[in-house]
Amino acid sequence: MNYRLTVNGRETEVDVPGATPLAEVLRDHLHLRGTKVGCGTGRCGSCTVRLGDRAVASCILPVGLAEDEPVTTVEGLAAPDGPRHPVQDAMVARHGVQCGACTPGMVMTLATFLDAVPDPDDEQVREALTGNLCRCTGYHTIVDAALSAATARKDMP
Amino acid sequence: MTAPGLLARSEIQAATSVDDAVARLAELGTEGAPLAGGTWLMRSARPPRTFISLQRVAELREVSVNGWGALVTHAELAAAALPPALHAVRTAARTSAFPQVRNVATLGGNLSARGFAEADLVPALLALDATVEVATPAGRQRTDVEAYLRVAQSSGPALLVSATAPAPMGRFSGYGRLTVRGGGEYAIASVAIAADLDGARVASTVRVAVGSVEARARRCPEAEALLTGTVLDETSARAAGRAAAEVLTARDDLLAPGWYRLEVLPVVFARAAADCLAATPEETS
Lengths: 157, 285
Prior knowledge:
Structural class of chain A: alpha+beta
Shape of chain B: globular
Order of helices and strands of chain A: EEHEEEHHHH
Shape of chain A: globular
Helix content of chain B: 25-40%
Strand order of the largest sheet of chain B: 4-7-5-6
Order of helices and strands of chain B: EHEEEHHHHHEEHEEEEEHHHHH
Largest sheet of chain A: 3 strands, antiparallel
Distance between the termini of chain A: 44 Å
Number of helices of chain B: 12
Radius of gyration of chain A: 15 Å
Number of helices of chain A: 5
Strand content of chain A: 5-15%
Helix content of chain A: 25-40%
Oligomer: heterodimer
Largest sheet of chain B: 4 strands, antiparallel
Largest interface: A-B, 34 and 36 residues
Number of strands of chain A: 5
Strand order of the largest sheet of chain A: 4-3-5
């Protein structure tokens, strides 16, 4: 079946079975390798992308359910020649990145979360991150990054 | 690198209406299955050849004060303004899994998934005395949740359309669950309590359901009897939890052995009671 997707603002068409995971389409058909596949069962969050205004686990989202809303991956969060997203800057500045396997998912979850909750506290950030596992940082630096990104966003024009 | 062939690769057909979905499912028989958000079915070891997607069936997204279409997501339920009688379903939705799954997983999928002992909405809807509307080739029927759970475990083109629960004044409900981490996991045990509470918080018309402990969530009449006519508080809730532990047959899995699921029940009952009482006038004033 042909499926018509809008990924990072660009329309594209793929010919795959409808239950092919969106993550596989993004990585292997559209060559957007920023989206990681960790567990492949929707538990670790490394495959998180945005569908419309929702953060979703793309490894268990059938591509056949992704046609009606635009998909945003970590590659589409900021323009290639533009400034990084505040969450990306904060992850670097606050040492929220170590091995990097969880990072694109963390960034997509946090960017989506801050759109809905612009001024969160520590507990709300931790709750928002329950679906994103990190084996390196112990999470504190990622929570710091989220809070610092929230402050940076408020100061943006 | 993903591993082709390891994950589900079924085809998807999009249904245009409830009747269309039921007709297609009847034609496909065991080769087909309805698809809502896919968070459960995409992990199935033996997916059907064809999924019938319900995504574009507008009727399944309808919401009323005390009723929800099958495609309502956990995130939508968690954000809903519900009366105290229905509070348990909101807590169950809000605390289940984690955002990426709550944003996609539906009420209909949670009730219809086969072999899903930890489904959070199931004990909540059992305690709320919910009924569901089910569409089959023979027409639509309204049935209670317990009866639907039995149907959903067998094959047959039965499609859950919506769920409804009564919300009389003076009724309160709450939900509690315990996980290995702070959140984002399947519950080791989950408990929903619904009861009519008078001014002194004496409980009547008590309904209690326990999830995650046995293979399927179920009501617990022994716990209900213990709470009926008593003041609902932490002490009585813990006693009800001990009564439930006496009669339930707990399952073992990688998350927890059965004895542990029973051991924690008093704590989880106390959490459910606290969630129930959080909406009573004394607590909110």
